[in-house]
Amino acid sequence: MPAKSRFTRLDAFTKTVEDARVRTTSGGIVTIASLLIVLYLVWGEWADYRRVVVLPELIVDKGRGEKMEIHLNISFPRVPCELLSLDVMDVSGEQQTGVMHGVSKVRLAPAAEGGNVIDVKALDLHSQDDVAVHLDPDYCGGCYGANAPPNAIKAGCCNTCEEVREAYASVSWAFGRGENVEQCEREHYGERLDSQRKEGCRIEGGLRVNKVVGNFHIAPGRSFSNGNMHVHDLNNYFESPVAGGHTFTHEIHQLRFGPQLPEEATKNLGASMPWTNHHLNPLDATTQATDDPAYNYMYFVKVVSTSYHPLGAPKGLLATLTDPSDLIPLGRHGHGDDGSIETHQYSVTSHKRSLGGGSDAAEGHKERLHARGGIPGVFFSYDISPMKVINREERSKSFLGFLTGVCAVIGGTLTVAAAIDRGVYEGATRIKKLHQR
């Protein structure tokens, strides 16, 4: 016999000699079953370890002097593109009137003809073919009492109908159809405008705004400031030869603040609540219809900053982009080099009213009264939430947690299997003794 070690008394795993062990058929079955169960549970632990979950975090948004992008795609089946104007303004005093950079106007055929896209060049209201190239080189068209626009082809002159319109807008004068204006009559502006009266228009694209409280709206006619008021030239809108006039029936195909989250990101946001981009953009696929030309739609939007950090992105907030916002191409704002995305969610409430005022008795609300006046169109007023949501991808458990789970599976399964095997063996032994009596 070898000498006993000093650790012998500490041995918690006492052994039995081989002759004292009993092997049974039931024990073999329990062993095979327990091994299969261990393999299945270990595979489950491995799958759980590899699973990626998104952990949301709510913090105070401490960003300052930031920009955000608004991407829109809205159709107006009963207003031609020539009459629509997109304006943006915010509480900082910044205004963008007649926005065209980054935004496209797509002419649509009348709804009765299917509303398909029309070739823009073929129906360009201010075609380059009509530029007065045949006029005397010394020709200088008058601006009819207004100041010539700074971007005029010839400084100090208004040689085209478009330049006369810009000159009128600069001094807050209504323009109309250009009657008795030489340039517009030469270019047949009024006739072309009337030929497009039955068309629709789709406005699509993106614009960059200050991340402060503000609004953007799509309304008829050129906009200009009259004192402290923002007004539009509505003559061409209301004086329409089309039966029933123009109306602001519209469909919002898409409206989002910031870049779209990737599809894999929305899938990882939880099986119990499968998010899609529709949950982030509740106004998508919204349709409003009216037969009243003097009608106003208002959407009050609450914007919440939201960042998405993929697995492996550094801890902390999204890194600030090195390039100034104005140097980042439109559509790339909010994308980090590590795959992080800075975007926005929003909630919205809507309100609509006739500019003629009155009550909502037709809808069963006689006590609800509306004020008279205003501008027909679609208005979006957005407010910025002081809170920010951070969605961060992480493993559902650490590697140490995976090892702990594996040990628990093996130990627990073998312990239960041993208890079952012991019970089966003891039961079989007692039954055998009863039969021998």
What percent of residues are in strands?
A: 25-35%
Distance N terminus to C terminus? 43 Å
Following the backbone from N to C, one meets helices and strands in this order, namely HEEEEEHHHEEEEHEHHEEEEEEH
Structure classification: alpha+beta
Quantity of strands, as a count: 16
What radius of gyration results from the CA coordinates?
Answer: 36 Å
How would a crystallographer describe the biggest sheet? 7 strands, mixed
Morphology? elongated
Oligomer: single chain
Helix content: 10-25%
- Which regions are unreliable across 5 or more consecutive residues at pLDDT < 50? 121-125, 271-275, 317-323
- Average pLDDT confidence is 80
Number of helices: 8
